[in-house]
Design a protein that fits this description.
Blueprint: E1 7-11, H1 15-28, E2 40-44, H2 51-57, H3 63-75, E3 80-82, H4 92-97, H5 106-111, E4 119-122, H6 125-130, H7 132-138, E5 144-145, H8 149-163, H9 168-173, H10 176-184, E6 189-192, E7 209-211, H11 212-224, E8 228-229, E9 235-236
Helix pairs in contact: 1-11
Length: about 240
């Protein structure tokens, strides 16, 4: 695969989400042998300051650490950067300004696949407050439906439980009432807009589940010049 780009992954936010992004990227790549896979560099730094705390409470900014990670990956030979953390995209412009290579936009890639029907959002408080999906959807005439405060607390706790190492399948049960609430409020689909939420199985839902992590996998394969398949069987190249 000499004509493909080397991928750099800004990881550790959180570690299991980074592992799953790597797994999905490798699984989705059409390859008959080791040599046909992408060259992937991963900087899995779990010590990046908390993005939601920075947005909501003025906690330590993650910008310097994110910029440093991006530069390290570029110096190591990455041609293209991917960041499997939705909330960290609040700092996408700063990261892009720190390197001379492209940085994928997971939010834009996800919203670009939506139809015009109202869409529910399962994300961190930081992603909601930063308005990352709201702005991107508004630009396309799409209404975003966010959980009510009680349901958003359930989402936040679910994310924390997964970060603590609980089984995402069990945690996912607590999100089903939240999804039903989004449906009652008019959502016709729901975005898994946190990479911990992406670890939750979507079985049995009566509403389409749009996984931002899958959209990042597809965009990475596309921009790396690789050939692969999405989870629904459509080719991404």
């Amino acid at each position: 695969m000499t004509s493909t780009k080397t991928i750099g992954v800004l990881g550790g936010m959180g570690p299991m989400a980074t592992v799953d992004f790597f797994r999905r990227l490798v699984t989705a790549t059409s390859a008959e042998n080791d040599q046909a896979h992408l060259h992937i560099l991963i900087d899995n730094d779990p010590h990046i300051p908390d993005r939601t705390a920075a947005i909501l409470h003025g906690g330590p900014s993650p910008v310097a650490a994110l910029r440093g990670m991006a530069r390290r990956l570029e110096d190591a030979g990455a041609d293209l950067l991917a960041m499997p953390c939705n909330t960290a995209h609040a700092y996408l412009d700063e990261i892009r300004a720190s390197v001379s290579i492209p940085v994928l936009d997971m939010i834009g890639e996800t919203v670009g696949t939506l139809d015009r029907s109202p869409t529910g959002l399962l994300s961190t408080d930081g992603t909601v407050r930063a308005g990352l999906y709201q702005r991107a959807c508004e630009a396309r005439g799409i209404r975003i439906v966010v959980p009510d405060p009680a349901d958003q607390r359930t989402v936040t706790e679910a994310i924390s439980r997964i970060k603590r190492g609980e089984d995402p399948r069990r945690v996912g049960e607590s999100l089903r009432p939240v999804v039903r609430g989004l449906q009652r409020d008019g959502a016709k689909s729901v975005i898994a807009a946190c990479t911990e939420i992406s670890l939750v199985p979507a079985d049995g839902l009566t509403i389409p589940w749009i996984d931002a992590l899958d959209r990042l996998v597809e965009a990475t394969l596309r921009d790396a010049g690789a050939k692969g398949e999405t989870w629904n069987g459509k080719e991404a190249e």
